[in-house]
Amino acid sequence: MFETVLVANRGEIAVRVIRTLRALGIRSVAVFSDADAEARHVREADTAVRIGPAAAAESYLSIPRLLEAAARTGAQAVHPGYGFLAENAAFARACTDAGLAFIGPPAGAIELMGDKIRAKETVQAAGVPVVPGSSGSGLTDAELAAAALGIGMPVLLKPSAGGGGKGMRLVRDASLLGEEIAAARREARGSFGDDTLLVERWVDRPRHIEIQVLADGHGHVIHLGERECSLQRRHQKIIEEAPSPFLDEATRAAMGEAAVQAARSCGYAGAGTVEFIVPGDDPSSYYFMEMNTRLQVEHPVTELITGLDLVEWQLRVAAGEELTLRQEDVTLTGHAVEARICAETARVSGDGARVDFLPSAGTVRLLREPAGEGVRVDSGLSEGTDVGTSYDPMLAKVIAHGPDRATALRRLRAALADTVVLGVDTNAGFLRRLLAHPDVVAGALDTGLVDRDAASLVRPAVPDEVYAAGALLRQRGLEPVPHGWVDPFSTPSGWRLGGEPAWTPHHLRVPGHEPVTVRVRGTARHAQVVVDAPAPAAGSGQSPAPSGSADTAPVSAGLTGAGPEAAGSARPVPQREPRDGGAITLHYDGVTQHFTAAPGPEGVWLGRDGDAWHLRGHDPVEGAAGGSGAAGADTLTAPMPGTVTVVKASVGDIVSAGQSLLVVEAMKMEHVISAPHDGTVAELDVTPGATVAMDQVLAVVTPAATGPAEES
């Protein structure tokens, strides 16, 4: 066995691998870019080496720098994790040439299975059923379009060199083939450095089921059962479970044997995964999709139901040991479900037809990870972690195991409710609601379920009690610290001589939502609160609701706990410094609710049941005068931090509603910015290659109905 292993990765998978290395008494070496100098995997390793700046191409994707780090630290082997260079045959070969053991399959197997076209041909020759699709590599755009038309719509465009959903495009309309092929090539080139595409028949309402295989260098290959990975968004998995609720024992055995044959066909060694697409109405009709020649993100669910440590077996196989397990020794116990916690914001489109899952960024201000019976967390997070858009958005995984599927689902939902990440938007609350979806509970899954029903799983508005908690925190920040006698005129009680106490207005805004005014009368502990209706967007033509209208009756409210005081404050609060974040309790309209709070920047973060909100101060005067708060229906803003890759319009162009104007890329994913209505491009201030911040104005489209002809 090895004495020292270098982990050529970052984040939660690096932490996960280090954990097994420590358990086996093996010295661990972490690598880090400048962006990760204070990261958790760096702190947990026995030693760590800087390998370059934040850009992945100059750090985590730099083979020479990784090999140099291994040489400097005396590493005998390299574990690639997943992503980055994990499925790069050149890296595996370079490690071998440098005298290092590559903890993964041989370079030849990576090369073969990494080319999806050759992989399909190889496994088909071994008797494994494959999805009907194009044949041959290096197809031109015209050849791809012709193959798609020959197969029949709908079709799926896929990069030959990659995975993880990047570059995949589902095309139902033949007239869009040219545009979708171009977009798929751009994403594939950006993600994998290779824009070769293939096209396959799309199976409607399919299930995505994969088989975990384990092989040694002595000819032994076994499978460890299946994982159901049908819950996906943007073709990327977000919930996985084992075993699948769809398969019976006969189908499980048949698919397992097909996976074993696929592994044998390429001379595989180590842990790998064979992925199948399965028609939702016929589990016996399964088709090979691809083989992932690495450890999968979702490997914990297999570990929990088999009792095996897959990283340990990767190490043992790479060290030349034989598998001591035979197929008959593998037993599946209970059920396990995993949820991927990603840095992203889910926003429903204006017409409500779709949900955009947009990368988010920020600094983790407060972190509470769940624990309890059957709960496991694989995480790369710690308080103070800066989450940017340079790397994959996955931050952590929460996994629950139970004696049966229903128990595992309940435990995972409870664990997600206990997950608190303040300072960056995550999908934890969305995943919790997804796990309660009736079809998910019933096991009636398919890869389109999330996209079809995502809008019903996104909170349409910020709950009133969230605004109330933010306003009361701000109110508390205005209150003097009691040290003996307190000047009654310094207390924001609203006291008036001979009259009714006045309201203290707090103007708050949550990104992605219109500003809200919360009026408070009294102290934070004993107050009346009115949450006014959100102000209409500038340019919407709607009139604001009158303050203090009859239908906004005051609600009794009070706040206790040790959260930050100056929530969303629009001006300095000299009386006291905000305390560290923590638990607060809100008594609102007769209901007691618990939040976790953390300060700033520019306001306060509140978390509850997996959801989180960033409440910022809002200046209504600046908004009315046309400042940053005035962005309305005509204005297109950046939905996330990223880089402009394509600009398709110019100032003065006449555009139609829904027409693509520009493309913003973040975390290797493209996001199209479209015209909100028919009209004219009045402003467009970005160019390809420009870096943009979240909520930055990109373009303004003046509605067609507001042209000069209507002016008096």
From TrEMBL:
<keyword id="KW-0436">Ligase</keyword>
<dbReference type="InterPro" id="IPR050856">
    <property type="entry name" value="Biotin_carboxylase_complex"/>
</dbReference>
<dbReference type="Pfam" id="PF00364">
    <property type="entry name" value="Biotin_lipoyl"/>
</dbReference>
<protein>
    <recommendedName>
        <fullName>biotin carboxylase</fullName>
        <ecNumber>6.3.4.14</ecNumber>
    </recommendedName>
</protein>
<dbReference type="Pfam" id="PF02786">
    <property type="entry name" value="CPSase_L_D2"/>
</dbReference>
<feature type="compositionally biased region" description="Low complexity">
    <location>
        <begin position="535"/>
        <end position="550"/>
    </location>
</feature>
<dbReference type="InterPro" id="IPR011761">
    <property type="entry name" value="ATP-grasp"/>
</dbReference>
<dbReference type="InterPro" id="IPR011764">
    <property type="entry name" value="Biotin_carboxylation_dom"/>
</dbReference>
<feature type="domain" description="Biotin carboxylation">
    <location>
        <begin position="1"/>
        <end position="455"/>
    </location>
</feature>
<dbReference type="InterPro" id="IPR005481">
    <property type="entry name" value="BC-like_N"/>
</dbReference>
<dbReference type="InterPro" id="IPR005479">
    <property type="entry name" value="CPAse_ATP-bd"/>
</dbReference>
<dbReference type="Pfam" id="PF00289">
    <property type="entry name" value="Biotin_carb_N"/>
</dbReference>
<dbReference type="InterPro" id="IPR016185">
    <property type="entry name" value="PreATP-grasp_dom_sf"/>
</dbReference>
<keyword id="KW-0547">Nucleotide-binding</keyword>
<dbReference type="InterPro" id="IPR001882">
    <property type="entry name" value="Biotin_BS"/>
</dbReference>
<keyword id="KW-0092">Biotin</keyword>
<dbReference type="InterPro" id="IPR000089">
    <property type="entry name" value="Biotin_lipoyl"/>
</dbReference>
<keyword id="KW-0067">ATP-binding</keyword>
<feature type="region of interest" description="Disordered">
    <location>
        <begin position="535"/>
        <end position="578"/>
    </location>
</feature>
<dbReference type="InterPro" id="IPR048429">
    <property type="entry name" value="MCC_alpha_BT"/>
</dbReference>
<dbReference type="Pfam" id="PF21139">
    <property type="entry name" value="BT_MCC_alpha"/>
</dbReference>
<dbReference type="Pfam" id="PF02785">
    <property type="entry name" value="Biotin_carb_C"/>
</dbReference>
<feature type="domain" description="Lipoyl-binding">
    <location>
        <begin position="625"/>
        <end position="702"/>
    </location>
</feature>
<dbReference type="InterPro" id="IPR005482">
    <property type="entry name" value="Biotin_COase_C"/>
</dbReference>
<feature type="domain" description="ATP-grasp">
    <location>
        <begin position="120"/>
        <end position="319"/>
    </location>
</feature>
<dbReference type="InterPro" id="IPR011054">
    <property type="entry name" value="Rudment_hybrid_motif"/>
</dbReference>
<dbReference type="InterPro" id="IPR011053">
    <property type="entry name" value="Single_hybrid_motif"/>
</dbReference>
